[in-house]
Automatic annotation (TrEMBL):
Domain of life: Bacteria
Source organism (scientific name): Rossellomorea aquimaris
Keywords: Hydrolase
Short name of any one Pfam family annotated for the protein: Amidase
UniProt name for this protein: 6-aminohexanoate hydrolase
Keyword Acetylation (UniProt): no
Gene3D superfamilies from the UniProt entry: Amidase signature (AS) domain (3.90.1300.10)
GO molecular function, one term: hydrolase activity
């Protein structure tokens, strides 16, 4: 196609060209492969390539809203039969998916062509993507910085223009944090909105939800139309939405909304001036658009939320390590996973069933309080993250900390660490950069990160907007309006070559 610039189109734009027969799906696949091969050596976003399989799928002339659109999958939960799925861990290096996940089935039905899988931190546990198994993924805006995690590989792939859409999931901010760091749109849907089957009935006790990372609002909205589901065996079901999310993204709100905003960290830690400025600018813009905006904190105990989140996090890590026996044919040992992962698993083993249940009850209390809050406010505006992106390796434990972790891990001193108050210190250290995103995971609410600010160093900063359960269409309407703002356009990836 003469004059065709693959990276200047979003997913729906590429699909429209296919439908008009202006370009073939196979040609799109070859364009995507060209960019992956050119950009991935520096970014390390794609860790498993499926080019021949993609070429065959493209030749079959896929149909659907995203017919022929090249897409990457995240290397955890998004299973494609016969392909590796390692969750960023050497323990899974020989594993091959036995079936397609329901997420993959729905994406394929929508016409997506899968080119490969993106890098994740081990077991998708942290907000940077630097697994020992594959090495760090780098931010396309500045290769010295992280794209975030755990969907960091997907974010880097989309922000660099390898693909317009990539698979992602979010159990504590793993869609929204990379979106914020890479200038993308990232929507975490309502709990139960998107599929988890057939191998699971819930992810992370319902905290984790599947969706995508995109450059345009309409791509995310249209993909949510394709992914929204009712699974009989799923543990959670979202209130049905019979309309079109794509249509919502193009429909103005039509009336003033009441919006609460806060720039205060829910765990009482520092918030960087650039992240505060992003929220204040966005609040001022919304007010200029006719919305009623006022400062108000969420009616929850942020420290209790953080601790209850980490209780689940420890327990799920312990369970993930225990489940390795099915793959390894023996019980997992310290050397099978990264030392920090083993430490988290030990803390999970030291957590009682009583503590676990009490922590889940905190989720339910928070959900009730937030539903009441949203009777007064349509949206809740905060920073997506408390700091701009960290440099690669900045959050790596020091040599002395690594030695301590190794000693503790080999001696199995998880219970002793808990008694010493280590959980509270881990909570503050791990969440001080990203304390805003976990609330929506625990309450089940939809939340999005929108690119509304650039730092003096030229790195994107995201603003998070949360709505009541089941109200993704409101978020998409607001995002569709804000997408036209100059601040959004400045923080969105552009391609000049």
């Amino acid at each position: 196609m003469k004059g065709f610039d693959y990276r200047r189109h979003d997913g729906l734009g590429l699909a429209e060209l296919v439908k008009k027969k202006e370009i073939l799906p196979l040609e799109l696949v070859e364009e995507a492969i060209t960019y992956i091969e050119a950009l991935n050596p520096d970014l390390n976003a794609v860790i498993h390539k499926m080019y021949e399989r993609a070429r065959e799928a493209a030749k079959a002339e896929p149909q659907g809203a995203f017919a022929g659109v090249p897409i990457l999958l995240k290397d955890i939960t998004q299973e494609l039969k016969g392909e590796p799925l390692t969750a960023g861990s050497k323990a899974y290096q020989n594993y091959r998916a036995k079936t397609d996940s329901e997420y993959v089935r729905k994406m394929r039905k929508a016409g997506a062509v899968f080119l490969g899988q993106t890098n994740v931190p081990e077991f998708a546990l942290v907000a940077v993507t630097e697994p020992v198994q594959y090495g760090p993924t780098r931010n396309p805006w500045n290769h010295s910085y992280t794209p975030g995690g755990s969907s960091g590989g997907s974010a880097a792939a989309v922000a660099s223009g390898m693909v317009p859409i990539a698979g992602a999931n979010d159990g504590g901010g793993s869609i929204r944090i990379p979106a914020a760091y890479c200038g993308l749109f990232g929507l975490k849907p309502t709990r139960g909105r998107t599929p988890v089957g057939p191998n699971y009935g819930r992810y992370w006790q319902g905290a984790s939800v599947e969706h995508v990372l995109t450059r345009s609002v309409r791509d995310s909205a249209a993909m949510l139309d394709e992914l929204k589901t009712y699974e009989k065996a799923a543990a959670y079901h979202a209130l049905p939405f019979k309309g079109s999310y794509l249509q919502a993204a193009g429909t103005p709100l039509g009336k003033p909304m009441k919006i609460a905003f806060s720039t205060a960290s829910p765990i009482g830690t520092e918030v960087h001036s650039e992240c505060r400025e992003a929220v204040l600018k966005t609040a001022a813009l919304l007010e200029s658009m006719g919305h009623e905006v006022e400062e108000s904190d969420a009616p929850v105990d942020g420290r209790k939320i953080a601790k209850s989140y980490l209780t689940m996090y420890f327990g799920e890590t312990a369970a993930a390590i225990a489940s390795l026996e099915e793959v390894l044919g023996r019980k997992a040992a310290f050397a099978d996973v990264e030392p920090a992962t083993w430490l988290l698993g030990m803390l999970g083993k030291a957590t009682t069933a009583e503590e676990f249940v009490l922590s889940i009850r905190e989720w339910d209390k928070a959900a009730y309080h937030m539903e009441t809050f949203h009777e007064a406010y349509d949206f809740y505006l905060t920073p997506t993250t408390a700091y701009p992106p960290a440099e690669i390796g900045e959050l790596e434990p020091a040599a002395s900390e690594k030695a301590l972790i190794k000693t503790i891990g080999k001696l199995g001193l998880g219970g002793l660490l808990k008694k010493a108050g280590i959980v509270d210190r881990i909570a503050e250290k791990n969440l001080m950069r990203t304390p805003f995103t976990q609330l929506a995971n625990l309450t089940g609410q939809p939340a999005m990160s929108i690119p509304m600010h650039m730092t003096a160093e030229g790195l994107p900063v995201g603003v998070q907007v949360t709505a009541a359960k089941g109200r993704e269409e409101l978020l998409l309407q607001l995002a569709g309006e804000l997408e036209q703002a100059d601040d959004w356009k400045a923080a969105r990836p552009g391609f000049d070559d």
